[in-house]
Structure formats: C-alpha cells, structure tokens
Design brief:
Elements lengths: L12 H5 L9 H26 L5 H26 L6 H28 L7 H25 L2
Helix pairs in contact: 2-3, 3-4, 4-5
C-alpha cells in the first residue's frame, strides 16, 4: 500500500501541489543534463544542416538554421536553469523546465522535419511549440522573481 505524503493545507496552489515534488530532489541534475544533451544535439544537427541540408534548396537550409538556432538557445537556457535550480521557486521551476523541453521538441523538431520532407508533417506543432517556449521561459522568469521575493 502506498504511503500518503502529508502536507499542510494553507489554501494556496503551491501548498496543495507540494506533494508532487516529493522524490524530485535531484531534478537540478536532470535539467542540467537535459540542457547539456540538447546542446550536443544542437551542435550535431547544426553540422548536419551545414553539410547535408539545403544544398539545392535554400528555403530548407533556412528552415534548418531557424530550428537549430532556437534549439540551441533553449538548450543553453535549460542548462543554465539547471545550474541555478536552487535559486528558483520550487513549484514553478519544474513546470517551466518541462514546458520549455516540450517546446523545443515541438517547435524545432517539426521545423527540422519540414526542412527534410518539404512539408509540415504535424501541422500546428511549430506554433504550439513556439508558444510553449514563450510560456516556459515566462514561467521560469516568474520562478526567479517569486524566489527573490519569497526565499
């Protein structure tokens, strides 16, 4: 039988969700590692794009470069988020990191595929991923501000 994780109800969302953070003490390492893995993937995919994509189609090369740019920027941001994990509001930092990760996959992934296939295989995934990136970074910014006001 699973043991219930007790918590004190203070009437706000943070206190009600706190049990969900149980067992995620090492999340800083996971986010830092995810950022590093995404950075290495961005470098590798940048090399692929420079040598194998768009030689005959400048639009495909431009798509690849756009996907790679936002992939790399978000990867470095996630890496930095992992390094500063303990300084961010515990509740919001995890949500922001997951939303950014999802945004990278949806936005950059769909554009990479479009550059390779010359069509959008999952229509709407790039705008949805871009929106997730924007929202995720705003949530992480909120986590930083919240942490500064309420350590």
């Amino acid at each position: 039988m699973a043991r219930a994780v007790p918590f004190v109800h203070h009437g706000n969302l943070h206190s009600r969700i706190q049990p969900l953070n149980h067992g995620l003490e090492d999340m800083d390492r996971y986010v830092t590692a995810l950022g590093a893995i995404l950075i290495s993937a961005a470098v590798a995919l940048g090399a692929v794009g420079a040598h194998a994509v768009g030689a005959e189609d400048p639009f495909a090369r431009q798509l690849w470069q756009t996907a790679n740019l936002w992939h790399a920027i978000s990867a470095v941001g996630l890496f930095a988020t992992g390094l500063g994990w303990s300084r961010l509001s515990p509740f919001w930092r995890g949500i922001g990191a997951w939303v950014v990760g999802l945004g990278v996959v949806l936005f950059s992934g769909s554009i990479y595929l479009q550059a390779l296939t010359e069509s959008a295989p999952f229509p709407g995934s790039a705008p949805l991923g871009g929106s997730a990136l924007i929202l995720g970074w705003l949530v992480i910014a909120g986590a930083a501000i919240r942490s500064a006001r309420h350590p």
